[in-house]
Structure formats: C-alpha cells, structure tokens
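Lecture 7, part B: from sequences to assemblies.

Below are the input chains for today's worked example.
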Amino acid sequence: MPFIPHTDEDIRRMLAEVGVDSINSLFDEVPSDLIDPGLPGIPEGVSEMEITREMNERAASDMLGPCFLGAGAYRHHVPAAVWEITTRGEYYSAYTPYQAEASQGTLQLIYEYQSMMSGLMGMDASNASLYDGGSALAEAVLMAVRANRKSKSGRILVPDTVNPMYCDATRTIVGNQGITLETVASNAETGAVDVETLEQWEGEDIAALVIQQPNWFGRLEEAQALTDWAQRNGALVIAVVNPTAMAVLTPPGEWGENGADIACGEGQPLGIPLSSGGPYFGFMCCRKAHVRQMPGRIVGRTVDLEGRTGYTLTLQAREQHIRRNKATSNICTNQGLMVTAATIYLSLLGAEGLERVAGHCHANTRKLTERLAGIKGVSLRFDGPYFHERVVELDRPAEPVFQQLASQGILAGYPLGRHDKRLSNALLVCATETVTDADIDRFADALSHALAKAA
Amino acid sequence: MSNVPSDLKYASSHEWVRQDDDGTVTVGISDHAQDALGDLVFVETPEIDRTVEAGEAVAVVESVKAASDVYAPVSGTVIDANAQLQDAPELVNTDAYGEGWIMRIKLDDPDALEELMDADAYEQLITEEDDG
Amino acid sequence: MSQESLIFDLGRSGRYARAQAPAEHADLADIPAEFRRKQRAVMPEVSELQVVRHYTRLSQKNFSIDTNFYPLGSCTMKYNPRACNSLAMLPGFLDRHPHAPDSTGQGFLGCLYNLQEMLAEVTGMKTVSLAPMAGAQGEFAGVAMIRAYHDARGDDGRTEIIVPDAAHGTNPATAVMCGYKVREIPTAADGDVDMAALQEAVGPQTAGIMLTNPSTVGVFERRIQEIATLVHEAGGLLYYDGANLNAILGKVRPGDMGFDVIHINLHKTFSTPHGGGGPGAGAIGVGERLLPHTPIPQVGEDNGQYYWRTEKDIPQTIGRLSAFGGNAGVLLRAYVYARMLGREGMTRVAEYSTLNANYLMTRLKAEGFQVWLPERRASHEFIISLKGEAKELGVTAGDFAKRLLDLGYHAPTAYFPLLVPECLLIEPTETETVDDLDGFVQAMVTIREEARHDKEFVKGAPYNMPVRRLDEVKAAKELDLKWQGEAS
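Predicted structure of the full complex, as structure tokens:
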C-alpha cells in the first residue's frame, strides 16, 4: 500500500485493540447511503517509476528558449544552493512555527527575512509573507482602510499603470467590504502618472493611493511627488514594487517627505523559479505605526527562561486563530518555503550582488530595446526612465506575432492589448541578467522576419 | 479571590464603572477580567468624541494568546481615554481600578447606571463563572 | 545545541558570494539620480559556504515530518513523498513563464486538468478550480461564490453565515471578508451540531453555513443530510471546510452529503509540504448551483488541447484571486501524489488514518487519559482533555505539549477547539507505524508519571530544545522585528 506502513499483523492487532473486526466498522457512524461511492473516474495507482516516466515526458514538452516576457514574473538566475537548502526536510516538511521551541530554525530565518526585506524597502517592519503580489495588494488595500482612521470613505485611487491582474485580484478580494477602487488615468505619452492628474481629488476623503514602481509599463513613476500629494491630502500611500529594482531605485520608505505607509509586491524575483505562476510569495512591509494592522505572521526576537535569545510568532492577537471574525485577515498558511528560498537568495547575493543583477537587467533591456527599435515596423512607445521593461510598438497587432514567435521557442514579451485595446500593437518586453547577446540576436532576427511580411 | 470594590458598578461583560461628580463615568475592566486574560501586551483605546451605545465594543485588551473587546457599559460620548496604556498596558494588570482605567464617558442618561450590577451581584456572577 | 548567530553578524564588509552574481557592474547612468537609491540596503555580507552552513544549521533546530512524529490535530502532517517534489521540479516545469501561451504548456496544463478531474470525482463535486492559494483563500472563494449566487438572484436580504463555535478561526474571518455577519451555533454534548440551535438560527437572513465534517471535535456529523435539507429549504447554501478531508477521502464525498462548495487543503490531504507555513493550495470543488461563479483561471479541455478558462468562458465568475493561476508547483506535487495513490490508494488514506486515530485513542483511554467523546468513533483525529491532570497534578495541556518536545514528539494541537478545557487534538495520520503510535502513548504516560513526582519539572519543560520557554509577553510588548545593526 503506497505510503502506509502497516503489515497484516499490525492491522489485526490494531483492530483487536480497538475492539472491531474490520476497518469498515470504524465508519459505522456514517449514514450507510453515503459510504463507499466507488470512484470510477479515478484511475488505478501507478508506481514511482511509471509516474516519473510520465512527468519527464510532460516536462520535456514544456521546454522553451529565450524569455523576454516579464509582466509580473521574471526569469532570474537562481543559485544552486537556494533550493538545495530550501528543500531540506527540516524546512520542507515542518508546519507553521506555533511550537516555537521546536521551530527555531524557521523562526530565526523569518526574522532574518523580515530584516532583509525591511532593509530593501527602507521600511520599519515586514510580515512573514502573503500569497503573491496580486493578493498582497488586496491585503494592503484592506490594511490601509483600517489604518487610515481619519478616512471613512473606503475610496482607493489606483492608477492605470498598476498591474491589471493585481487590480483584478484586489477587486475580487475587497469587493464585498464597501471599498471602491477609482482609476487614475496616466499620461498617454509617458506611460506614467502626472501628479497634476491627482488634483481632481484634492480635498476629498481618500483612504489611500497606490503607486507601482516600476509601473506596469516598466516606467518609473514620480514616486516622490505622488507620495507627497497623497499624504498632504490625508491618504496613505501603498507602494507596489519590484524587489530586484529596489537594489538601485529609491525604496518606498524614502519616497517623499515621510515615505510610503505600506510597501508590498511580488517576491518571485528573489530566487523563486517561474514555475507557471506559482508558488511565489507576496511581501508586505509597513511603518511602525501600522504594524498592528498588518495581516499575516510576524516573528519577534525575545529571550527564553535562561535569558538566551530566541524567536517566536508575535502580535498573534491580530490573527484569525485568536481574533476570529475581527482578525486583520483570514490568512493562515502563507508561503513560508518561498520565504526560505528568498532569504537564502538575498544572503548569497547581498546588496552588492543584487545591485549587479539589477544593473544587468537594466542594461540588457536597454540593449534589447535599442536593437528592436532599429527593426522596420518597431518603435518605442513611452518616453522616460525605465528599469527592466519597456513597451515596443509594432506596425500590426502584437498578439499574433507573440504566438508566432512562441511557436519558434521565443517568448517575445507581453501583448498589452489583452488589457487595453489602445495598446493592441504593443509588446511589453523585458530582459533580465539571464539574457545573452545571442538571445537578443535571435529575438531580433525572428521579429524582423515576422514583420518583413506585409501586415 | 478577586478584588471587587463596593463603590463601583459592574457590567456582566466585566467592565467596572465609577461615577464621577461631573456627570461622567470612568470605565475599566475588573480585577477578575484582567486576571483571566493574563499579562496584557496592548490596549486599544477609543477615539475621543466618539459616541457609543451601551453594549458596543469600544476598546480592545490583548494578551499574548487572547484579545477581548471592552464594551461600553453605558451610552454616551467618550471624553477621555487613558493615553498611558499606550506604553504601559500592564497598568491594567497592576492597578485595574486605578491607573489602569481605560476611558471616560459622558452619559446620555444619568439613570443608565441603575441598569448595572452592584458589587455583590458582580461577585456572585464571577463565583458562578468559576464554578461553571 | 549552541546558538546560531544571525546571518548579519557573520558578515564582513565587502564579502559576498561572487559566483552567484554578474561579474561586473552595469551602466545605470541613464536612470536619473532622483530615482536612484542613495544608500545600499543593509544585507548580509557572507560567503556561499557561510550561507550554506548557517541555513543548514538553522534547519537542524526544526522539528519536521521528516525527523519527528508530528500528530498536530487538523493539520494532517503525513509523509510528503519525495517523488512529488523531484518531479514537480523538473526544468521544463520550473522554467515555464506563466504568460507563455497555453500551446507551449500542454504537459503542465494536462497535469492540472487531470488533477481537477480526480478531485471532482473524489469529492463528488461538479467541477474544481485550482486557483486558491491556501485553505483560507479557498474559503474566501467559496463564500464569495455563495454571495455571488444570492446577488445574481436578487436575493439581497441574506446577511448571515452560520458557523459552529468549534470552527477554525478562518471560517468567521472569511465570512467577514465577504461582508457577512457571523452567527455562531453551539456544539451539542454528543459532538454533533446542536440541531435545536441550528433550527433557531436558520432563516431568510441565512446566506449559508460553514461546516467541517468530520468536525473539529474529531467526529463525523451524523445528521449532515438533515442539516443540508434544513439549510437548503431556508434558501441557504452549504460550505464544506476541507481541513479534515483526510478522514473520509474516497470513503464519503462532501458532494453526496449535500455541500454546494468545498475547499480541499492539498497540503494536508494530498500530502504537499507544509513548508514551515506554506505554500499550500486550497482547491475549490463546486456544485451545480455555484458553477457559474467558479473562480478563474480554471483549466479547460477542448479536443485534447488544454487551455486556461477565463472570464470569457465563465462570465459570472467571482474573478481572479491572484496575479496568476494559483500555486502551480504545489498542484503538480498533488497530481503526482494522486496518481501514485490511485482509486484504491485514496480510500486507504481514509481507512488507515481512521484506524491509526482509533487505535491511538483506545490506547490512551486504556492508560487512563480522558477522551473527550468516549462514546463516539474517532475520525482521523480525536481529543483528550487534561482537565483532570491540571486539577490533580497542576500540570496543563500546554505543559504536556512542551514536555513532549523533549521526548522527540511534536506537540498535538493544544487548546483548540476552544470549547474543550485543557485539550489536545491528536491526528496521527496514516503514514505512521504502530510502533510510533505506541511510543507516543508511552511518552504521555511518562510525562504524567513525571508530573506526579515533580510537577515543577514538567512545568519547566522543554529542556532539550534549542531554547526553553520564550518570553512571549516581552516579544509582544518590546517589538523587535528586525536586526538593527547591534551585535547580539
């Protein structure tokens, strides 16, 4: 029997001890018309050897070549040590560290993670993770509404330069709590938000403004001015940022006069493989004043009976297992193992290494887009500073070109027309540090070939 | 055995109420309640000027493993909250009826105090709870 | 065990793992200074070996399924087969971008589609969406679907979700996130739902009820069909919290009991790792009434081609729960596990987890421990109450829990459900040998003996762990949530 260790003798002895003659007798409290449905739709079990063969074939069919696709998930080099250590059974098969004395490994690691993440974001505190970047924004919105005690409106300003999938997830999650997301239109020339656009909300009761940096189009927002506008108007600032970019860009804690109130985002770039979209992890940091409104686990440092340093979950009265219907969130299980990987990743790279990774992402994207802009039928769409993504405009709809290049093994960027018809000729392209000159050549050649035919 | 001062009124949800001379009352949680909660680590006090209904949750007392609402024992307006608890929540443990007060409320109806329990009735309530 | 320094304290300025980062700095001059970071973040400055050694040492301070018996009630800490991990981490799966076209992900999507089909069959539901990231998000999706159902019918007077007092904290927290009021109902003395209280609570204001079956007190809710009829007749819907699905996998199906929507904790029943607190996966099983509101994306199949179904295919969906399609890598692990079990293997999970729990309960009862519902069959878990020991010996459930750690056993769930005083909720799972169960009984007996001789000794436990009991009051009052540069 797979994974069940009992011998016939064990079973006989155990049944005798319980005082029943068969295993089925143990289900005698279940109404008889419910028992043993048969399950014809489930195949017979297979051996490890058989499933290995099947999975190898399936995985091989999904192999692809160079990746110029980002749009919320990024292919970075993941050092070998990251997953070698992360998948040790002591991390992999442990539970949430409720029994602190038996979980000091996980707890100290989360404390180190919180330290690194707070540092990277320039914020006071970090939680132990949320599900992903999209649901982290939803939690940040709920948190801002709780934390902004002066605001009663539940109105959140969300620029159209925020990842549309994040907005969709946020709408699903906060939709039943009387919160409204109001769209702020960006400048169509620059692909970024003008602070003047916000003046139409001047003097109104707004709970929070969301600022994504770099934004959905890869452009850098005027985060300083936007933050100052929001806080002058009594709104909190929710930063949605790419963690790799924070090695070289102004971190949310230093935006404007006072810094952002909440910083969140997708942790995947920090050592997590692309893996078709998950598991990743959402991160969340905040200023000290808001820490009791933060959702999710938080680890604190303390001492034991003998005065030795130790780590434990803290501020648990915020959480569902204690506070039930008044909890800050219903989140219980988060993305602990992904945080383990990210902590090891950040330790290996350090500030120096992460800065180099970020620098190469930027430089490769510059090289890529300059090259693509030289192709007939391709132009650059938005003006202004960017990090590792840019929008290129084709002379024809981007979606078929994307599909055509994918069939040649090249992921040619993200067709932006999926979310905005005005951008149906646009591709959002990205080049991380993993992209080589040969990859860029291959992409450029394939694209010019595809565009050489009449549109 | 818990300390239940005879000059105070009590709510069944374990708040105490002291009548002040100026038509206001001071509210805290009873010695019995603080003992059941254990070491407090945080007290969330109500905003000043907030109007409250009797029975409405207006403050929160937190220990490591529990969080309990504190209910307004009477209807009225919150005119003061104990700012000291921000940094020293343990005052509720060490001096529940004194320095550990939580808020002051200006009563809508001075007769509302009649609805509350006196010390004897409250003492009986907590004895029954302990046996239960 | 010696204390392990923080990774920050191991560093030296200028040290880093050079092989892992690009060899040169790149030119960033075209990013204007106003956007640039002024000061580097404080990060560890350590070598690769230091990193490997530090995190290996830290790992050794953890209990885990791979190292210890872990009978944590309601958490299903069973063996996580290694093949599930290695096969989910094949390069073709790991390297696939979530926005890559469906045509290039047929291997991956095929696994997910088959997993959906198997989960629908084993739970008796019409369809399954794998989008939710964890049990709590599955709960959210389910209750949001219930809300969407009532809203779509213009039935807007339904404001309450009924939740038993013994429910997991996620249930009431979820109901509130979906804009509902929570109405608690008590558990009857026999462990089942108090039917009189339920009848009292159900009415035109009832949007639905959230139930766990077997319940959090470790017994099968015998009147489940009656409950389903009662709630449905009042116009409400039934939500099944799948935390305890391991007890009945393949043996009894939530769909047959009358539930309209369920979540399945794949990190419990389908043996994907708990990872020290995730990632999980909270697949949703959907019944007929709620089909139009299924969360997106979901994997569909058309002429042998697999594809992501979106709002185009499910226009009344509650929507997207995350940026992408859920915890894909966890789903691959669950798929491998489900395939290895197959039809008979799934049923055996229920049978042997139930046998192990009933055996362990019988043994503990024979040793004089007070079983909470002695007249009932245990499901895959059961409760003992140490109220007697607390009164006579002055040693609480929490003290037993801490001393168990010293003896090499992870503590059972303590003080949950809240309605049973001094309780331990014990779930041995099907993957433990009878010898390990006997060892646990012996440990419980030993601790009771120790308490008889020296209660202070037990109250001071643990002694053999990396730390002794921690000052949690200090942790909460003097918040220290990050390293701030001081030598510790």
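Note for the exam: DSSP finds twelve helices and 13 strands in chain A. Keep this in mind when comparing with the next example.
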